[in-house]
Amino acid sequence: MSTRSRQTVLALGLAGLLVDAVVSHPAFAVGRVTLFKVVSPQHEIVIGLTKAELTQMRGQTPDAVEKALRSAGVLQVWQYGIRRGISGVPEQAPVRKIELAADPATHIKPYITPLKVVSITDEILTEAIQ
C-alpha cells in the first residue's frame, strides 16, 4: 500500500470517528437551542433560548441572559424538561412557554445535558402535525 493510500484511509477513518462522536453525543453537536438553569430561592428550572434570541441579548453566556432579564424586567422563554422521545429514549424538550421575571435573587447558570435537546421549532412543528 502506498503512502498516499495509507493517508487516505487514515483520513477517512478519522472523519468517520468525528461524525460518530457528533451523532452519538448530542452535547458535542451544534444545537439550535442553548439551555440554561434559572436558580431562585423558590425553585430551579431549565430554560431554552434559540440562537436568534441570544443574538438579541447580545451574547450567549449566562451573564448576557441575566443582564437582558434585568434590563427588560420580564422575558418570555421556553421551560425545558425531560421526557421520553418516540423511540423511548429520554430527551430534553420544551414543556411550556413561561414569563421569567427579574428578581435580584435569581441567577442564570449554564446547563449541560447528555440528553438529546429537542429544538423549539421541531416541537412546534410536531404539535401542529398531531
What do you see in this structure?
The protein is α+β, with helices and mostly antiparallel strands. The relative contact order is 0.18. It has a 6-stranded mixed beta sheet. A hairpin with a 4-residue loop joins β1 and β2. The chain is built from 4 helices and 6 strands, in the order αββααββββα. It starts with a helix and ends with a helix. The chain has 2 domains: 1-26; 31-129, no CATH class.
Number of strands: 6
Give the integer mean of the pLDDT values: 79
Q: Catalogue the unreliable spans.
A: 16-30, 125-130
Global Rg:
19 Å
- Beta-strand residue fraction: 25-35%
In order across it, which strands form the biggest sheet? Answer: 5-1-2-3-4-6
* Relative helix content: 25-40%
Task: Provide key terms for this protein.
single chain, alpha+beta, 2 domains, 130 residues
How would you concisely characterize the structure shown here?
The relative contact order is 0.18.
List the helices and strands and how they pair.
Blueprint: H1 3-24, E1 33-39, E2 44-50, H2 51-56, H3 62-72, E3 74-84, E4 90-101, E5 107-110, E6 116-117, H4 120-129
Parallel strand pairs: 4-6
Antiparallel strand pairs: 1-2, 1-5, 2-3, 3-4
